[in-house]
Amino acid sequence: MSAHTPGPWRRKVGGNLGNAIEAFSGKHIYDNDDGFRTVAMFQSCEATGFAAQEDANAAANGRLIAAAPDGYALAVAVAARFADTDAPLGQMARDLLAKVNG
Known about the structure:
Blueprint: E1 9-12, E2 20-24, E3 36-41, H1 51-66, H2 68-81, H3 88-101
Helix pairs in contact: 2-3
């Protein structure tokens, strides 16, 4: 099992942290604290010079990163389902898990 921060993760945009990925910590320290903490920061990787395009790219990056725990869970399930086979889907899931788990 990976030692990553468990989901759910969400994309947060704006504020003084810029673009952030947050995960639920379960701790509420102050009244307006929703229990989410920053686990990663992201930005656009498309240097177009056009803010709208760069914002759209950053948003897509954020959605992909925020979905990572769900993708991990899916890979675990697929790898388990195809554990005793040479099915390409099972191999793809095992390869992905090898990347995640180091």
